[in-house]
Specification:
The protein has 271 residues and is an alpha/beta fold. It contains ten helices and eleven strands. It has a six-stranded parallel sheet, sandwiched between helices. The longest helix is centred in the middle third of the chain and has 16 residues.
Amino acid sequence: MAEMRLIVAGAGGRMGRTLVKAIAGIEGVVLAGAFDAPGSAAIGRDAGELAGLGANGIAVAADPAPLASDGDAILDFTIPAASLALAEIAAEARIVHVIGTTGFAPEHEKLLAAAARRTAIVKSGNMSLGVNLLAALARRVARTLDEEFDIEILEMHHNKKIDAPSGTALLLGQAAAEGRGIDLAQRSVRVRDGHTGARCAGDIGFATLRGGTVVGEHSVIFAGPAERIELAHKAEDRMIFARGAVKAALWAKGRPPGLYSMADVLGLGGF
């Protein structure tokens, strides 16, 4: 069977370079193209050299549109504005779009859903196996425990991360909300400062830490009367996200148009 031809967005960035490296080490896929934002210092450079692999003959382009006709999927860990443009390119070319970008606004989600009517999009706040298993566990625990157990989500990332709470924290919060049968948008608490009053039963709290070079750490805490349950995941290398993205692309190849998640890829929907 022919190798799946993958295109890497943001090839000059940390995740882009990690994706290029991951593709080189996974059977069944090949790097078909790489691009970065216009003006990036990576434009024109060899994607393999940027990833520390040595030259692979794939020069980093500034325009993704011409690459789409020669690829099967775009792997995208960029920013919301770029991801929205790439969703349209992928939909037009009828190729898979794997989105690990976070920080989307509600109106962005509607545009992605519209693009997914024309091609397969796999979108997740986190592409790792461990985090998606954690989300499934959080959903199950939240379903099992009543409101006597308060739910708090704690996350820490490196000091260059630009959105908060992280996409992973929101993914975990959404899983817990689904378990409780509540609307996360109505019941989440993102900021506490000053005299806030007592905690409201049933709310889901978020706490954000930023510093150093932390790849990603997340905890879902269920705090009840005289006992506490903590579910946690610590990412040690961005490669786990890259491998998950490649796995998602392989899974989505040949799927009908639709907006899928890593829970679909991993078969966790019924957990």
